[in-house]
Amino acid sequence: MHATTDTLATTPATQGGRSRWLALYTLCAGMLMIVLDVTVVNVALPAIQDDLGFTSSSLAWVVNAYLIAFGGLLLLAGRLGDLLGRRNIFTAGLVVFTAASVLCGLAQTQEMLVIARFIQGVGGALTSAVILGMIVTLFPEPREQAKAIGVYAFVASAGGSIGLLAGGVLTQAISWHWIFFVNLPLGVLTAVLAVKLIEKDKGLGIGKGTDVPGAVLITAALMVGVFTIVKPAAELGWTAPRTLALAAATLVLLAGFITREATAANPLVPLRIFRSRTLTGANLIQALSASGMFGIFFLGSLYLQRVLGYDALQIGLAFLPTTVVMGLLSVKYSEKLVMRFGPRRPLIAGLSLIVVGLALFTQAPVGGNYFVHVLPVLVLLGLGGGVCFPALMGLSMSDVKPEDAGLASGLIGTMGEVGAALGLAILATLSATRTAGSTKPALQALTDGYHLSFAVAAAIVAASVAIALTVMRQPKPASEVEDEEELLLEAA
Hints:
Strand content: under 5%
Number of helices: 19
Structural class: mainly alpha
Shape: globular
CATH superfamily of the largest domain: MFS general substrate transporter like domains
Number of strands: 0
């Protein structure tokens, strides 16, 4: 990987072995705060609605305000990390996220909560966009990098399940305000540890990539695009005039951005990075797999709640097997699989397991039994995620130059966020449409709607398997690369 040959990357890599792993855990703690926040809030939405008097339609803004800011700023935040220093952007994001969390907890009006959630999204984007780039810089050696990315992938993908449990406990035991207040000690501690454990990187300098028009265009495009997905598309339908108008505006802004980047002397996003077949393929797979997985966790929770009658705490406990299995594979075995087989084969195998799990979920009946109809699905999703996500994260950064690491990290995050929002909107709309048009009893109509969404999600993830098979190239396993390097050294 390029990270060993550039001065931008070598400074953090000079940290001692123990301090590098402590730095990794600090970065993952920051990521865990961001991931937990999404599902913690989802569980607490009914309590927030009752307390602040939200209507069903306005309640969506508690989630949407965060998603619009987060999804809209990820790409820009990643590039700012390259220019201004990734540790600077990471710690600045923690400060903004933590302060906004306190404002959310103190909110006594709908307007205050929605505004604070938007600011939280800004902080979340700044924090999470640069983490993967910092990890590949800290761990340039292939074996350690694979293990470190496995830890990160577990936190990024399985943390949401922990959030379901934490949200249920905090909301039921204390109040919804505390799902935000708990971020204060966590955020302060993580920021202090980041300054202490992560060596400061200088960055390229703002003069190397100042592109204000490009920044405005891509941020506006992503914000309008995410808004279109989570609001008019989900509520009015994909063919509604307002949806089509906003979708057209998004495309115009994207076209303007691409034109600007192709002609700017110092583009915000150098288009040359998309020449990498590996990077482009990894981002497509990220968007598709996120579309299927995020929507299923949301709709699967609804199936447990509305069809099987689970409460918030029971839902959190129900999803724990996914977290446990994914964590075991990501942290303990993913590095060994990548070193033995290379990243492409585990990626294909893991995605295929997810497809099987989603297909199996289409058989869950109205009177479903958790151990028969739900647990096998969650175990398969955990197995698939634990195998494929670390490999995917590694592939997404494998062809990236050190000066573009923050940009590539922000890009893979953006594709996941936009893919998740798009997938959720599509799957939720399909489910609701099937249920509304059914003449069957209420619970059966609900179940049929969920079945349709599970089947479509399986098809979406299957498309990512096709991309992995046709677009992604199989790099040599790191063990073979290390053997070749040793032979060359001996010959020299």
